[in-house]
Write a structure and sequence with these properties.
Shape: extended
Strand content: 15-25%
Structural class: alpha+beta
Strand order of the largest sheet: 1-2-3
Helix content: 10-25%
Order of helices and strands: HHEEE
Distance between the termini: 51 Å
Number of strands: 3
Largest sheet: 3 strands, mixed
Length: 72
Amino acid sequence: MPTKIKQKHSRDAVPKTGKTESEKRFVRDLLIRGEAAKPLPDGELPAGATHKIVENNEEDLPQVERERFSIC
């Protein structure tokens, strides 16, 4: 029986050292539209936010994680 060989994708071979331009644009757009926000004291996101800011970086854009989908 032949064994399957897992093929590596080219993206697996290149170590990720930073955000690509498209990733930066995506995060900037989330911030501009108000879709990325820090959680409130009770742990919930503000109304309209779909992504939470998990790590704020002084020199670069914050790291965000999707929390919910927009219903609009």
